[in-house]
Specification:
By secondary structure, the protein is an all-beta fold. Helix content is 0%, strand content 49%.
Length: 218
C-alpha cells in the first residue's frame, strides 16, 4: 500500500502484470500494467549417463533441463566443445577408440548456465591378432614355444588349442611345450577373447622329427 512495492527473492510464480490503484477523497486512478518477467536459470533434471559400447556401435547421450526458454546446449568432450553438438541429445555413429573420453553438456539461457556432471564413454575394441603363432619343426626332446600378439581392450584372455581341443592351463599369450615327442605333433592355435568378442589365430603346425633308432641289429 505504498508508492513502492518490493518483492524479495522473486520466483517464477511472481511473474505477471502489476498495476497500482492510487486513491484520494476525489476518486482513484489505475496505472498501466507493468509486466514482471522472471527468468529461471537452467538446471539439470536428468543428466547424461555413462556408457560402455563395442567399437562400431552407435551412441546417444541426452540431457533434460529446466529453465526459462530459450535454452541452448553445448556438448563437450574432455572439456572441449564439440562442433555442431548443440541439441539436448548428442549422437555418435560408428564409435571408435578415439571417441572414448569424458562428456559434459552446458545448458545456457539469459540468466546463466548449468554444466552436467562428466560421464565416461568407454569404447571396447574386439581382439585382433597382430602377430600369428609360427609353425615349427623340432627334434624330439626339444622345448617349443608358441607366441601370439593381440590387440584389443584389456583384459584379454587366451586359450591355446591343439587340433581344435583346448589345452588345460594354456591360458597365456605364450604356450611352452617341454620335451616334445611324436604325440605332440599337430596344429596349434589360440583363441583370444575380451568382453567384445573373440578371434582365433591361424593354425601353426608343430612337426616333431624322431631320430632313427636301431630296433633289430644286424
Amino acid at each position: 500500500t505504498n508508492a513502492t512495492f518490493s518483492l524479495s527473492n522473486a520466483q517464477s510464480g511472481d511473474a505477471g502484470n502489476y498495476t497500482v490503484v492510487v486513491t484520494n477523497s476525489a476518486g482513484s486512478v489505475t496505472s498501466n500494467a507493468a509486466a514482471l518477467t522472471v527468468i529461471v536459470p537452467p538446471a539439470i533434471v536428468t543428466p547424461p549417463q555413462a556408457q560402455s559400447v563395442t567399437a562400431g556401435a552407435n551412441v546417444s547421450f541426452s540431457v533434460t533441463a529446466t529453465g526459462t526458454a530459450p535454452l541452448t546446449y553445448q556438448w563437450r568432450k574432455d572439456g572441449n566443445n564439440i562442433a555442431g553438438a548443440t541439441n539436448s541429445t548428442f549422437s555418435l555413429s560408428n564409435s571408435q577408440s578415439g571417441d572414448a573420453g569424458s562428456y559434459t553438456v552446458v545448458v545456457t539461457n539469459s540468466a546463466g548456465s548449468a554444466t552436467s556432471n562428466a560421464v565416461t564413454l568407454t569404447v571396447i575394441l574386439p581382439p585382433a591378432i597382430v602377430t600369428q603363432p609360427q609353425a615349427q619343426s623340432v627334434t624330439a626332446g626339444a622345448n617349443v614355444t608358441f607366441t601370439v600378439t593381440a590387440s584389443g581392450t584389456a583384459p584379454l584372455s587366451y586359450q591355446w588349442r591343439k587340433g581344435g581341443t583346448n589345452i588345460g592351463s594354456a591360458t597365456n599369450a605364450t604356450l611352452t611345450l617341454s620335451n616334445v615327442q611324436a604325440g605332440d605333433a599337430g596344429n596349434y592355435d589360440v583363441v583370444v577373447s575380451n568382453s567384445a568378442g573373440s578371434v582365433t589365430s591361424n593354425a601353426a603346425t608343430l612337426t616333431v622329427i624322431v631320430l632313427p633308432t636301431i630296433t633289430t641289429q644286424p
